[in-house]
């Protein structure tokens, strides 16, 4: 079942789009099922679960942290995490940098941008992300690498609204790339799209989709 779904997505997604299999709340045997047919990137949103799965599962898995990260938990994932998707403050970036520096690592991060019309979602707005990237505090951080942006669209049936939210993320990405990352080749990712809206996300420039329930089944929490 899981294997079939992974095959479907690997076949369906354009080559330029990375599949993050969101395995949060799901048992290790299902992750192994996906791993065994070639899926190497998995997303988790709880630090404790991520650490436990990292310890038990094959070491060539690339673990992405996709949840809201608290500063006091950063140290647990910095040694091995391959990408942190939802960084939404300078304070958090500083903490990631501090822990990464201790072990001489550079940690890849995405800045989470608030694109939805929903109070419950996190993220920076355009003004805040400019302020962050312009600040001398940010420029002093040498052990993080900003790989791009991440966003979540409003949970709605209004497809044109979803499309316009994703489009706004793509436009902001381009603007930031030209303003702050024109000479380096790192700010390339736009993480957007989940089970319900990944097609719209890809049509609007996604480079990375985070798909959970449609691979592993509904979550019961
Ligand atoms: C759970 C989660 C997903 C996956 O959502 P599905 O609808 O199950 O595909 C993607 N991104 C984030 C940030 C999540 O928390």
Descriptive notes:
- This protein is of the alpha/beta class.
- The protein has a single domain, classed as Alanine racemase (TIM Barrel).
- Helix content is 42%, strand content 18%.
- The protein has helices spanning 2-12, 28-36, 47-56, 74-77, 90-102, 126-134, 136-139, 159-180, 198-203, 213-216; strands at 18-22, 41-44, 62-65, 83-87, 107-113, 144-151, 189-191, 208-211.
- Strands 7-6-5-4-3-2-1-8 form an 8-stranded parallel beta sheet.
- Strand 1, helix 2 (28-36) and strand 2 (41-44) form a beta-alpha-beta unit.
- Pyridoxal-5'-phosphate (PLP) binds at residues 22, 24, 45, 66-67, 194-196, 210-214.
Note the main attributes of this structure.
single chain, 221 residues, alpha/beta, TIM Barrel, 10 helices, 42% helix
Secondary structure layout plus pairing:
Elements (H helix, E strand, L loop, with lengths): L1 H11 L5 E5 L5 H9 L4 E4 L2 H10 L5 E4 L8 H4 L5 E5 L2 H13 L4 E7 L12 H9 L1 H4 L4 E8 L7 H22 L8 E3 L6 H6 L4 E4 L1 H4 L5
The structure holds pyridoxal-5'-phosphate.
Strand segment tally: 8
CATH class: Alpha Beta
CATH architecture: Alpha-Beta Barrel
Count of discrete domains: 1
What proportion of the residues form beta strands (DSSP E)? 15-25%
Ligand list? pyridoxal-5'-phosphate
The CATH homologous superfamily corresponds to: Alanine racemase
Question: Low-confidence parts lasting 5 or more residues at pLDDT below 50?
Answer: none
Number of helices: 10
């Amino acid at each position: 079942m899981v294997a079939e779904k992974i095959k479907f997505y690997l076949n369906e997604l354009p080559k330029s789009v990375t599949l993050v299999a969101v395995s949060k709340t799901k048992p290790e045997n299902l992750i192994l099922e996906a791993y065994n047919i070639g899926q190497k990137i998995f997303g988790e949103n709880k630090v404790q679960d991520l650490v436990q799965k990292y310890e038990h599962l094959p070491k060539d898995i690339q673990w992405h942290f996709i949840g809201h990260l608290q500063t006091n938990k950063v140290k647990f994932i910095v040694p091995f995490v391959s990408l942190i998707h939802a960084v939404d403050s300078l304070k958090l970036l500083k903490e990631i940098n501090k822990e990464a520096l201790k072990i001489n690592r550079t940690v890849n991060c995405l800045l989470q941008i608030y694109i939805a019309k929903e109070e419950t979602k996190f993220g920076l707005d355009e003004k805040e992300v400019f302020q962050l990237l312009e600040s001398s505090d940010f420029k002093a951080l040498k052990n993080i690498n900003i790989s791009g942006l991440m966003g979540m669209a409003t949970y709605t049936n209004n497809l044109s609204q979803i499309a316009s939210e994703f489009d706004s993320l793509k436009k902001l990405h381009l603007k930031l790339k030209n303003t702050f990352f024109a000479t380096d080749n790192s700010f390339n990712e736009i993480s957007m799209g989940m089970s319900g809206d990944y097609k719209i996300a890809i049509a609007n420039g996604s480079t990375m989709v985070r798909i959970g329930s449609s691979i592993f089944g509904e979550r019961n929490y």
